[in-house]
Amino acid sequence: MAASETIPESGPVHPSGGTVYATPYVAPAHGSVGLGERPEKFNEKDFKRWQQKMLFYLTTLNLARVLQEDAPDLGENPDRQTVAAVDAWKHSDFLCKNYILNGLDNALYNVYSPMVNAKALWESLERKYKTEDAGSKKFVVGKFLDFKMVDSKTVISQVQEFQLILHDIHAEGMVLGESFQVAALIEKLSPTWKDFKNYLKHKRKEMKLEDLIVRLRIEEDNRQSEKKACNYHQEAKANVVEQVDGIFIRYASHSSAYRFLVHKSEIDDIHVNTIMETRNAHFFEDVFPYKVAQERNSLERTSMDQDPSQEEDEPRRSKRARMSTSFVSSQFSIHVGDCWHWGFKPIVEKLEKQL
Q1: Are residues 94 and 106 part of one domain?
Q2: Residue 137, Cβ neighbours under 10 Å: how many?
Q3: N- to C-terminal Cα distance for the chain?
Q4: What is the pLDDT of residues 146-167, one digit of tens each?
Q5: Are 89 and 66 in contact (CB under 8 A)?
Q6: Are strands 258-265 and 281-283 parallel, antiparallel or unpaired?
Q7: Radius of gyration (Cα) for the chain, nearest Å?
Q8: pLDDT per residue over 21-32, tens digit each?
Q9: pLDDT by residue (tens digit) across 328-341?
Q10: How far apart are CA 136 and CA 140, in angstroms?
Q11: What is the DSSP string of 34-83?
Q12: 136-146 and 155-171 helices cross at what angle (nearest 10)?
């Protein structure tokens, strides 16, 4: 080796021992990209997306150039530099081809592994799957036309689906103006949003797509709040006990049930001025005995204030008759089905039992 010869840091060394001074070869940066950035395996779906990811991955490794270049020609009398350049290209092609093959599904790996170089492999994949993707334009347009919002999903989640369809349309090379996108999104709203849809249509000032999405998010939040308030009101209303006010008449004939005259009803099936019967009744004096006790004490004090001599002169029959015609309000409750009803009962029945 001549003393004047220097070995470049990045230049390859020919197997014969000679040194190559300058080559267009750049060593692949194998360790510059983490494994997490390697694209997922291609399984015959979304070829364009996988192709873009793989191309970026190969670019970070300085291997993407072999997809566009052919192998250098050695010629009849190649020099050391030409031989080294060919060897470097073959090494890069070997790496690039196997990176692509490792990015394929196992079934596809077996199909495309016989390819002679990375460029042939790349072009073969493009011919097959880009041709199949040619019909995807019609498919994406069909998805766009058929898309309609439903009430079973949130509006914002469906807006995101709509944006994905728009992205697919743009990826196919079809350009849609923002005004068209805004108008289309308004038309995609569900029928329950009819009033808000008409409100948006009559706005003269044009909106951007982002502004429309913000308005839809605010409107949906307001609707959810109103729905919660309405449900709470309905639950509270359902817990309110429907009542029937009535007057105790007497016991039913040949029965242990009570009879009441209805004078106020909150139940559709029970009408005013009708007589109803029930066996399960809870009277007011049994629920609130303190009030009845006060009424009883008041009656006793009234009786004690009367002249005893006059009471002895009056017949007992006459006294009982007067008591039977004087009724004191006594509230009762009736249980019919699942409802409780309140009314009045003459206190004479209770007084007769105590005498």
Answers
A1: yes
A2: 15
A3: 141
A4: 999 999 999 999 999 999 999 8
A5: yes
A6: unpaired
A7: 47
A8: 334 444 444 444
A9: 334 444 444 333 34
A10: 6
A11: -GGGSPPPB-SS-HHHHHHHHHHHHHHTT-GGGGTPPPPP--SS--HHHH
A12: 150
Amino acid of residue 81: Q
pLDDT in tens, 127-151: 888 766 666 777 888 889 999 999 9
278 in Cβ contact with 336 (< 8 Å) = yes
Q: Which domain holds residue 143?
A: 136-223
Is 27 within the bounds of a domain? no
3-state secondary structure of 302: helix
Residue 303 tokens read as 């009786």
Q: Which pTM was predicted?
A: 0.40
* 182, 207 Cβ separation under 8 angstroms: yes
More confident residue, 127 or 241: 127
For residue 282, the 8-state DSSP code is E
Q: Which of 133, 168, 190 is the last residue of a domain?
A: 133
Domain tally for the chain? 3
Go through 138-148 and write b for each residue having 16 or more CB atoms within 10 A of its CB, e for each that does not.
eebeebbeeee
